[in-house]
Amino acid sequence: MAHVWQLQEAKNKLSEVVEEAIQHGPQVISRRGTEVAVVLSFQEYLTLKKSRTNLAQFFLESPLRDSNLDLKRDKRPAGRDFSL
Fold first, then answer.
1. Are the C-beta atoms of 53 and 60 separated by less than 8 Å?
2. pLDDT computed for residue 8 by the predictor
3. Which pairs with CB-CB distance under 8 Å and at least 24 residues apart come from 31-35?
4. Domains (ranges, CATH) in the chain?
5. 25: pLDDT confidence band, cut at 50, 70 and 90?
6. pTM greater than the 0.70 cutoff
7. In angstroms, what CA-CA distances link 31 with 7, 21, 75?
8. From the centroid of its chain, how far is CA 12?
């Protein structure tokens, strides 16, 4: 689990916060008891950044792409009549 640093402590010990992020993973910074920021290693940042894809790319790479799944929109009016 990430260590939570109070903002003032993180400012005073920035080198230690960065080293902890490199060695042990993300470090959380809080201000007035609320978690407001995270310090993480550059390598972890690159991993997170690389794993993001846009929505079109996600659908192109989906295993359901060639599954003949019917994704046509239902054009019937939303307020259909029904009886109770």
1. no
2. 97
3. 31/6, 31/7, 35/4
4. 4-60 (3.40.1620.10)
5. very high
6. no
7. 6, 18, 50
8. 28
